[in-house]
Amino acid sequence: MERRSFRRFRPREMHKAVCADCGKECEVPFKPQEGRPVYCWDCWKKRQGRE
Q: What is the pTM of this model?
């Protein structure tokens, strides 16, 4: 039987941001870049339906 190894993941560092659609403060698992929009979870989900 093949053994699978599982890596342990450390918790992601969260970064504060302001949603480009609703203006609400949120936290994202990446460092926001100037000039690129960031969306809160609710606005991101709404935008996924549009595309």
A: 0.69
Q: 27 with 14: CB under 8 angstroms?
A: yes
- Rounded to a whole number of angstroms, the distance between the first and last alpha carbons of the chain is 44
> Could you tell me the residue range of the domain that residue 38 belongs to?
15-50
Q: Which of 46, 11, 45 is nearest to 29 (CA)?
A: 11
Number of domains in the chain: 1
Tell me the per-residue pLDDT of 10-29, one tens digit each, with 9 for 90 and over: 788 999 999 999 999 999 99
State the Cα–Cα distance between residues 46 and 10, nearest whole angstrom. Answer: 29
- Structural domain includes residue 5: no
